Amino acid sequence: MTAYAIDHVSKVFGGRRREVTALEDLCLTVGKNQRWGIVGESGSGKTTLLKILAGLMSPTSGRVQFLDRDLSLDDRSAMAALRSSVQMVFQDPRSSLNPRMKVSSIISEPLRSPLLKGRSDVPEDPDSRVREVLEAVGLPKQAGDLYPHEFSGGQRQRIAIARALAPRPTILLADEPVSALDVSVRAHVLNLLNNLVDSFDLTLIMVTHDLAVVRHTCDNVGVLRRGKLIESGSVSQVMNAPSQDYTKELLRAVPTLATS
């Protein structure tokens, strides 16, 4: 099954006097359970694409299909299916976690969404699900009684990942999920994501400027430049034999992830 089919999607911002094209005629197919990394420099359109896939933004032209439902038709049932099946992990856990809420409330908040009403895989007792996902991300159950500021940056990102996993999504969208973390903990968080994608049977789409992150986590990669998808394929294919000079430039800048 296809998770996403992106068909000639463009996104233009602005009005008549000044228009900015964030995405141009983009085509991409993401299969179920695949791991895709979308790479490019700042302003390449990565985050715009992720917002469209999350249903937070509509394309100016083109079609987006999610699990064979056409999101471009403004179909309420298609959008409801998207929002009950897709979760996001954001770049900076300090800004994505409510500092006034305890961790248990942060994680259980998505479970109260009306979109999940009637789903058999959503427990009536949210506390049990909170304990389950805390354990899955390597945090003790006592963490639920604390506030985000009582954790390190890497631990806060684990909490954000636990929150995304709580409603049992089928697709995980990640926006630069380790760029705000210390180099020493990045590989640990990426290893965690790898394990969780397998354990929870997820499709992963991650945007990043860092090809080292893609190599560590993804099976497929798409390279964006100025809103255009200039190259895509398996990670091994693109990284071992890139066809575009821009991709070669990105590869020359690839750092080594700390694993100690």
The value of Rg in angstroms is 18 Å
N-C termini distance: 38 Å
The average pLDDT score comes to: 90
Number of helices: 10
Shape: globular
Derived from helix and strand composition plus strand pairing, the structural class reads: alpha/beta
Which residues sit in consecutive blocks of at least 5 with pLDDT less than 50? Answer: none
Q: What is the helix fraction of residues, given as a range?
A: 25-40%
SSE order in H/E notation? EEEHEEHEHHHHEHEHEEHH
Strand content: 25-35%
What do you see in this structure?
A six-stranded mixed sheet has the order 6-7-8-3-9-10, sandwiched between helices. A four-stranded antiparallel sheet has the order 2-1-4-5, with helices on one face. The chain is α/β, with parallel strands linked by helices and 260 residues long. Helix 5 packs across helix 6 and helix 6 runs parallel beside helix 7. The relative contact order is 0.17. Strand 4 and strand 5 form a beta hairpin. It contains ten helices and ten strands. The termini are far apart.
Q: What's a concise summary of this model?
A:
The chain has helices at residues 46-53, 76-85, 93-96, 103-108, 126-136, 153-165, 183-199, 211-217, 235-240, 245-252; strands at residues 2-14, 19-31, 35-39, 61-66, 69-70, 86-89, 171-175, 203-208, 220-225, 228-234.
Task: Describe the protein's topology.
Elements (H helix, E strand, L loop, with lengths): L1 E13 L4 E13 L3 E5 L6 H8 L7 E6 L2 E2 L5 H10 E4 L3 H4 L6 H6 L17 H11 L16 H13 L5 E5 L7 H17 L3 E6 L2 H7 L2 E6 L2 E7 H6 L4 H8 L8
Parallel strand pairs: 3-8, 3-9, 6-7, 7-8
Antiparallel strand pairs: 1-2, 1-4, 4-5, 9-10
Helix pairs in contact: 5-6, 6-7
